[in-house]
User: Which sequence fits this backbone?
């Protein structure tokens, strides 16, 4: 833990997700938003945990490259990059973001009346002039949807909420109308498991909520 | 279920809670907000489930009185009143809203590092010129807080978020930073278990999300 005399490093969030931005803001942190420009390609040979660990690591590494390329104050001083990746897993299949309306309807039609898992990988890189240190964690939660009619699914998809979200739903938005039960961390399902994230950031010297 | 020719009744939400208002808005419903003016007095002889059932019922009944007193269109036509009450239970004690800063700190100091339960009672009254029908449900969820330092608790309380909330925290706000895990419905913990609420409202003829 840093002494009071040590200032908190610059935090860089490697994500443009409004949900992740909101979660990090709620921690009272100042940070820069610098999304990676990576395509999220899933390697089918990996387990779900390996997929999110791999993608979160790749996003963090790519943002560190972007920071090096642009130079400037962040590239020189102590900074910490926070990246995450979230997927939905059902019957062994990895469900990412839907490609279109029909894809979202097909995904939700599989998930309703059933329990699925949500995996999030979190990867942090702490960079200063002496060293580069990385830490990562994986978290899993279970989500149970109630049964939905075809018209309920179609109406939900037509709200557009599902379109940019892994598994085609948002826990904290309109999607709450179909969630019977979860087992795990709500912030994990939203896209950034906060308790683990706080631990990782503190290991990198980021000061949060008075410690 | 009503036929397409039957119009949806007027919905009245017997709560001024911004969280409940947001949850009902997300269902795509139009509704009037008419809080009851009841003091939430807990009868210590009741079980937690009985307490929330009793308070939700009292709120709904009081709002029906208010509607009758003012007369007008809602009092004449078919209307449905939706009321809810949420409490936190830990080691057999019922924790309601904190009375001041010290009370909030004392509540959170008990809850951190432990698992507590959240009870919500939902009560609906359907009123038309032929009949008055009431339905109610109770739901329970478990919440596990991580361990927090005294300064983390004090900083969280100083954010003011805990001050108007049962158990002195919000699941969906800054409070997410201390939640390890939940088991149950997130909307229950926020103050209105949506799946049960949708079932109750539909029993009263309220049309939701295309049924």
Assistant:
């Amino acid at each position: 833990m840093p002494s009071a005399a040590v200032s908190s490093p610059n935090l860089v969030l490697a994500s443009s997700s409004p949900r992740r931005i909101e979660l990090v803001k709620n921690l009272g942190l100042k940070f820069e938003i610098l999304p990676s420009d990576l395509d999220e390609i899933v390697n089918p040979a990996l387990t779900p945990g390996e997929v999110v660990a791999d993608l979160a690591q790749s996003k963090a590494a790519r943002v560190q490259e972007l920071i090096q390329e642009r130079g400037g104050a962040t590239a020189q001083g102590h900074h910490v990059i926070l990246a995450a990746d979230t997927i939905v897993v059902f019957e062994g299949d990895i469900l990412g973001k839907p490609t279109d309306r029909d894809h979202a309807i097909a995904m939700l039609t599989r998930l309703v009346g059933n329990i699925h898992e949500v995996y999030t990988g979190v990867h942090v890189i702490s960079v200063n002039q002496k060293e580069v240190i990385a830490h990562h964690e994986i978290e899993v939660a279970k989500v149970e949807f109630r049964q939905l009619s075809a018209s309920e699914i179609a109406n939900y998809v037509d709200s557009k909420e599902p379109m940019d979200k892994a598994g085609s739903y948002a826990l904290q938005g309109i999607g709450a109308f179909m969630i019977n039960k979860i087992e795990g961390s709500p912030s994990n399902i939203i896209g950034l498991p906060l308790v683990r994230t706080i631990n990782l950031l503190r290991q990198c010297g980021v000061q949060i909520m008075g410690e």
